[in-house]
Amino acid sequence: MPHDPTLERLLSFLQASPTPWHATANMARRLERAGYRRLEETQAWQLAPGERVYVTRNDSSIIALQLPDEPLSALRMLGAHTDSPGLRLKPNAVLHQQGWLQLGVEVYGGALLAPWFDRDLGLAGRVHVRREDGRLQGVLLNVERPVAIVPSLAIHLDREANNGRAINPQTQMAPVLLQGSEEAGLEPLLRRWLYEQHGLETAEVLDFELALYDTQPPARVGVNSELIASARLDNLLSCFIGLEALLDSDGRQGAVLVANDHEEVGSASACGAQGPFLGDVLRRVCEQLGTPGEESFIRLIQASRMISCDNAHALHPNFADKHDAAHGPAINGGPVIKVNANQRYATNSATAAMFRELCREAGVPVQTFVTRADMGCGSTIGPITATELGVPTLDVGVAQWGMHSIRETAGSRDVAHLIRALKAFVNRPALS
Q1: Which of 168, 183, 214 is the endpoint of a domain?
Q2: Is there a domain that residue 222 lies in?
Q3: Is the model's pLDDT at 141 over the cut of 80?
Q4: Do 11 and 159 fall within a single domain?
Q5: Residues of 368-392 as b/e, b for ≥16 C-beta within 10 angstroms?
Q6: Whether residues 309 and 173 fall in one domain
Q7: pLDDT at 1
Q8: 185 vs 303, higher pLDDT
Q9: Is residue 191 part of a domain?
Q10: CA distance linking residue 50 with residue 37, whole number of Å
Q11: CB contact at 8 A, 257 and 78
Q12: How far apart are the first and last CA of the chain?
């Protein structure tokens, strides 16, 4: 297997980012190592031309800004999302059934449920505690070893299991965590893990946002390592690719990387793409580095372009009939332009033409995806961001299999393809 530093960084990022909070923290650390300065939304900002800054909201969404030395006239925007479908713990998660401590779960987003059975599951997320001195603090928790499993029912007890049986997430998806007495609970375990990871020996757990995740590490797969298999490729793969392109750019142009939480559940939140986060940040930047006022902001947005990056459905060799015959993107065939006449994707002919030209200049192959006319179509942050800001936008992504599964698959060569295309975009002097 040939050594590829970029793919090694990708696999490490995927492994270390089991939740949106961890992904955002990891992106922030990498930005800081590259010289980006953290901004706080509650404080006054003092920005200067040529600076590199970033800001987070809810600790699960992040915006990084590369400010040009010249007057701010246009922004090259890259968009992605930090969340992935899965199983989240309910607030009162403890269940005692048949001598087992189990956890009540809620399905987050459009998760493909069947692959969750019989997997080694860790637990991660954000926990808020009261310190001994009375301070409230939010901390990240990541129990990386397998502590839970959702066991399948033996086929001997359900002869129809392979005949399309529906899965009930309320009654059939509760993972088993601990065998023991009826007094066993989740809070003592959380306190133990918080002490192990943060030294919080006496802190009181007040609330949490925790998710289960597959502890199997990401891997390169295939005889020639053609594939990458991992949890959360949708859409941490785009977060990583966008960050790589931004950090590897020449730094001369105004550029933005935004990675929103809550895309998988509609983006309607304070830190989601339908919320005010990106608009709030860009207005503050425009006030300081552009001409103050709404007209100046509108002119900046209309001179800018957004590339929304979210993975695309690759042609599946076992289910080729699920694709339009003329629009079946191939794994390792290059970035995919995503088109939908009903605006489920934000691409139009002008923004698609710009991206095709970028790919030509970068020597990158490019593909197009349109869903079958008799099937529904998913969406992305692209149309939402375009609606909220009015910025000309297109949707692109890496082709993948198994979208919304606990383990997804993409092409190892497509990572470099999209990084090169996005780097050409960030470096491009003129957008029109």
Answers
A1: 214
A2: no
A3: yes
A4: no
A5: bbbbeeeeebbbbbbbbbbebbebb
A6: no
A7: 63
A8: 303
A9: yes
A10: 12
A11: yes
A12: 42
327 and 204 in a single domain? The answer is: no
- Please say whether the beta carbons of 247 and 426 come within 8 A: no
- Three-state SS for the chain is CCCCHHHHHHHHHHHCCCCHHHHHHHHHHHHHHCCCEECCCCCCCCCCCCCEEEEEECCCEEEEEECCCCCCCCCEEEEEECCCCEEEEEEEEEEEECCEEEEEEEEECCCCCHHHCCCCEEEEEEEEEECCCCCEEEEEEEEEEEEEECCCCCHHHCCCCCCCCCCCCCCCCCCEEEECCCCCCCHHHHHHHHHHHHCCCCCEEEEEEEEEEECCCCEEECCCCCEEEECCHHHHHHHHHHHHHHHCCCCCCCEEEEEECCHHHCCCCCCCCCCCHHHHHHHHHHHHHCCCCHHHHHHHHHHCEEEEECCEECCCCCCHHHCCCCCCCCCCCCCEEECCCCCCCCCCHHHHHHHHHHHHHHCCCCEEECCCCCCCCCCCHHHHHHHHHCCCEEEEECEEECCCCCCEEEEHHHHHHHHHHHHHHHHCCCCC
Record the tokens describing residue 295, joined without a space.
Answer: 């007209």
pLDDT band at 431 (very low <50, low <70, confident <90, very high): confident
| Cis peptide bond N-terminal to 235, omega within 30 | yes
Range of the domain at 321: 5-83+231-427
Lookup result for tokens 């941490």: 236
- The span from the CA of 311 to the CA of 226, in Å, is 17
Domain count, the chain: 2
**Whole-number average pLDDT of the chain:** 95
The CB-side HSE value for 117 (13 A sphere, CA atoms) comes to 12
278 shares its domain with 416 = yes
Q: Compute the distance between CA of residue 291 and CA of residue 293 in angstroms, rounded to an integer.
A: 6
Q: Compute the distance between CA of residue 52 and CA of residue 426 in angstroms, rounded to an integer.
A: 14
Going by C-alpha positions, the residue among 115, 7, 408 that lies closest to residue 235 is 408
Query: In terms of domains, do 302 and 418 share one?
Result: yes
pTM higher than the cut 0.90: yes
**Residue entry with tokens 């491009």:** 428
- Judged by average pLDDT, the poorest of 196-205, 223-232, 277-286, 405-414 is 196-205
Q: What backbone torsions phi and psi does residue 40 show, to the nearest 5 degrees?
A: -110, 130
